[in-house]
Design a protein that fits this description.
Rossmann fold, Alpha-Beta Plaits, 2 domains, 9-stranded mixed sheet, 11 strands, elongated, binds iron/sulfur cluster
Length: 279
């Protein structure tokens, strides 16, 4: 089963939910696809990390063949190519999505592809008593804007023999869609505030378009108002868990400790999320 943990906005406790859920279930793999700011490893402390570079493909032009027809630039949806007649085919690697279309449309067979490093993928194992968690996370190079190819490469490490928990980046943009696509279920983490509700609604819209079933975890329960609860009730969205705004939980977070380690009674509550998902 693949469970994505997402949130419409940052700072709601998405990673807290992902790692505590992971520590409450057997046979888990965590894929941290929040590649611009992965945090799961801070809580899970993986050992024996292996690091490998992650690449995307970018076009390179053979000027012995190119006749500056402009077909490659016309085909590129992302404006990553500009043809300067009789002079140059300018490639903007940071805009290139590595789709390969320009290579296919070039009538002169003048375009080939080369690799461009965009970050790294780290894999390791986290152990907590008798629980072992496999962790894979991507780390995008500073200044790199193309998160999606790295997310795809993190997801390529998915182990179908395990319960897979995907930590998704916050928001509703392309990296979120790349991370949640293919999931069996999405846990949306929110907080009971007007901002939380606004961003939750956006995330719900995305999941409905993607046709991925979802439920809500309310973090920092007790602050704000009841509008998130009312919205979920009106829309028939299950509330999977409430995590109170609690000093002990906040202290664990600030120390980089998943709070189920300090408060093991919560493991059962996190594990029950799976029962609710399967209902
Ligand atoms: S499509 Fe090929 S031949 Fe035409 S401008 Fe692009 S690289 Fe040159
Ligand atoms: S590979 Fe795709 S995105 Fe990149 S320049 Fe070619 S057409 Fe554009």
């Amino acid at each position: 089963m693949i469970i994505a943990v997402a949130s419409g906005k940052g700072g709601t406790g998405k990673t807290t939910v992902a790692v505590n859920l992971a520590l409450s279930l057997p046979n888990v793999q965590v894929l941290d696809c929040d590649v611009e700011e992965p945090n799961s490893h801070i809580f899970l402390n993986p050992v024996n990390e292996e690091i490998k570079p992650a690449y995307t493909r970018v076009p390179t032009v053979n000027y012995d063949r190119c006749d500056y027809c402009g077909k490659c630039a016309a085909a590129c949806e992302y404006n990553a190519l500009v043809v300067v007649p009789q002079k140059e085919v300018m490639v903007f690697p940071e805009l290139c999505h590595g789709c390969g279309l320009c290579t296919m449309v070039c009538p002169q067979d003048a375009i080939s592809e080369e690799q461009r490093e965009i970050g790294v993928i780290k894999t390791g194992k986290s152990s907590d008593g008798n629980i072992d968690i496999d962790l894979v996370y991507g780390l995008l190079n500073i200044g790199e804007v193309m998160a999606t190819p790295l997310i795809d490469q993190v997801k390529a490490e998915l182990n179908p023999e395990k319960t897979v928990i995907i930590d998704v980046s916050p928001g509703t943009a392309c990296p979120v869609i790349a991370a949640v696509q293919g999931s069996d279920y999405c846990v949306l983490v929110t907080e009971p505030t007007p901002f939380g509700l606004y961003d939750l609604r956006l995330a719900i819209e995305v999941l409905r378009v993607l046709k991925i079933p979802f439920g809500v975890v309310i973090n920092k329960a007790g602050i704000g108002d009841r509008k998130v609860y009312e919205h979920c009730e009106k829309e028939g969205i299950p509330i999977l868990l409430e995590i109170p705004h609690d000093k002990r939980i906040a202290r664990c977070y600030s120390e980089g400790v998943p709070f189920v380690k300090d408060m093991p009674e919560w493991k059962e509550r996190f594990a029950e999320i799976i029962d609710k998902i399967l209902l």
